[in-house]
Design brief:
Number of domains: 3
Shape: extended
Mean pLDDT: 84
Number of helices: 17
Distance between the termini: 85 Å
Largest sheet: 5 strands, antiparallel
CATH class of the largest domain: Alpha Beta
Low-confidence stretches: 327-344
Structural class: alpha+beta
CATH topology of the largest domain: BirA Bifunctional Protein, domain 2
Helix content: 40-55%
Strand content: 5-15%
Order of helices and strands: EHEHEHHEEHHHHEEEHHHHHHHHH
Length: 548
């Protein structure tokens, strides 16, 4: 597929564009690569032509034209426009695309779409990031040199006159994309629809941020491996990619915007809002929302509402179909699993969080050491937190440090126990979902297997229904391994057990969060007590020191 990219440059040095096209450059820093003697290195294969100018005097001719019309003198003016047409890497091997042919296509494209402009047309065959794709660079002076006929995609009449600047409007960009598509279709090259918005919109800035972030992460992981430490993460994610992955996961199961918002908040701590029928998302590390349109069409209102409807419809159809196929007397060749006791679900541990915060150690706080005003503010805050800590100890009637540490150890044990219970329930829920999945798969293809047993020509029947029979065998084998050959329970009982496990998981999750917050609060109190005792010891030591 061929794509076209546009870059507007305010650099008044037109020679930099020439050097970039002719000499090798570092893709990260955009700086030229030098040899041992400090000279720039020519690109291994490139084709260069000029349009309305000599390619090797492009810079001086552009400056001469600018001076003639007294344009492009201000710093904020766009001096040149850089268009890049990147062809599909498969075009080289499958379609016979060469550098010479791409250069001719680029020249034809530039003459047709940028007439009257001084332009450089250069083809590189090395590809970006060693991808091997052939791409054409078209660099034009923003000032038009010759008059041309008025075109429909031009927004203003003056754009066709000499001495006026190139203006890339929305209609102009659509025209250029259509021209690239028509060119590739005519030449028999791979091509996709460039006019349809991308499902996952990745900008040039995000692309390079991901590249640089991944490179830094790889270096850090390599250093950790050398030190004998196993890295936790090997894939770098931009903030937008984190949002995309989280939204894809939440949208795969959500059946309404409310459920979708709840999943994003609980699982990924992403805040979801709807403003003027536009979906926006707030990353946990940001203060500004990112609209779904900036992420791609998969994350906008139209696509997600359609996904919610499909999820609701699919859930209902699957449930109705399985319940209809389920009969009261099941065959003995289908297994079952024993259900857990459906006793009353215990109420979660109740905890009301206080506003107690850690006391800051001024000796280790760099900012406090650099700013007296900030240090004074920290001292006042510390006094307040110390007073609250003392009040907390008196309120909860801790007679000694041993009593308090015993309570802290008990809270830590309760947190560990609630975490273990939550993990066990989540594993049971996972097993139950798998049981429902394979039971539905078994029932869906049970009739196909019965017809196979009754067929006279089993080989022919198996060839025609190999996929269905394979799914049936997989489901039956998995169910037998899980339950040891008992009868298959009804889907109604399976869904009832799943609902019970979901309710139990939600209660246990709330219980775990409360225990965890309670333990954290006690640890904050413990740290503050240590700081208070440390301060008292230092003050006592300072008082005794003069007598020594």
């Amino acid at each position: 597929m061929a794509v076209i990219k546009h870059i507007a440059s305010k650099n008044s040095d037109y020679g930099e564009s020439e050097r970039y096209l002719i000499f090798q450059h570092n893709e990260y820093t955009r700086k030229p690569i030098l040899d041992e003697e400090g000279h720039m290195i020519l690109r291994e294969e490139c084709y260069l032509d000029g349009l309305n100018c000599d390619p090797f005097t492009f810079a001086s001719e552009c400056q001469e034209l600018n001076s003639y019309y007294h344009k492009n003198k201000n710093f904020n003016e766009i001096k040149s426009h850089h268009y890049i047409i990147s062809f599909d890497p498969k075009d080289r091997d499958e379609c016979g695309l060469t550098g010479e042919r791409a250069q001719q296509l680029g020249l034809t494209f530039a003459k047709k779409n940028f007439p009257g402009h001084q332009a450089l047309v250069c083809t590189h065959t090395d590809g970006h990031n060693e991808s091997g794709n052939i791409h054409v660079h078209i660099v034009i002076n923003s000032l038009r040199k010759y008059d041309i006929p008025q075109e429909p995609y031009m927004e203003f009449d003056c754009e066709a006159k000499a001495g006026y600047k190139h203006h890339l409007s929305t209609a102009y960009l659509i025209h250029l994309k259509q021209e690239v598509m028509d060119m590739c279709k005519k030449e028999g090259l791979h091509q996709v629809d460039l006019l349809t918005p991308a499902e996952r919109k990745i900008t040039e800035k995000e692309y390079w941020a991901q590249r640089r972030g991944q490179e830094k992460l790889d270096k850090l992981n390599q250093k950790m491996k050398e030190d004998g430490i196993t890295p936790k993460g090997t894939r770098y994610q931009t903030e937008k990619q984190f949002l995309r992955d989280a939204i894809d996961d939440a949208a795969s199961t959500a059946r309404s915007p409310e459920e979708f918002s709840k999943i994003l908040d609980e699982k990924y701590h992403i805040i979801f809002k709807i403003s003027r029928n536009r979906y926006s998302y707030l990353h946990p590390g940001r203060k500004k929302y990112i609209t779904g349109r900036n992420l791609g069409t998969r994350y906008t209102e139209d696509f997600l509402l359609k996904t919610f409807e499909e999820n609701t419809k699919s859930h209902k159809e699957q449930k109705e179909e399985i319940l209809e196929q389920q009969t009261p007397n099941t065959s003995t060749d289908s297994p079952t699993v024993p259900f857990s006791d459906t006793s009353a679900i215990p109420a979660p541990f109740i905890f009301i969080k206080s506003d107690l915060r850690l006391v800051i150690d001024l000796q280790t706080c760099i900012k406090a050491q650099q700013s007296e005003a900030y240090a004074q503010k920290v001292k006042l805050t510390n006094l307040k937190q110390m007073a609250q800590t003392v009040a907390y100890i008196q309120e909860h009637s801790y007679d000694s440090l041993d009593d308090f540490h015993a309570t802290l150890d008990q809270a830590s044990d309760q947190t560990s126990a609630s975490r273990k219970s939550l993990k066990d329930t989540e594993q049971q829920l996972k097993d139950m979902n798998e049981q429902i999945h394979f039971t539905g798969q078994y029932l869906a293809y049970k009739n196909v297997y019965a017809d196979y047993r009754k067929s006279r020509n089993k080989e022919k029947f198996y060839e025609e229904h190999q996929a269905e029979l394979s799914l049936y065998d997989t489901a039956l084998r998995t169910l037998k391994e899980k339950s040891g050959g008992n009868k298959l329970p009804s889907m109604k009982a399976l869904y009832a057990e799943k609902d019970r496990l979901v309710e139990l998981r939600n209660r246990q999750r709330e219980d775990f969060f409360n225990h965890r917050d309670y333990e954290r609060e006690l640890r904050t109190v413990s740290a503050n007590i240590d700081m208070i005792l440390k301060k008292n010891y230092e003050q006592l030591h300072d008082r005794k020191e003069p007598n020594l």
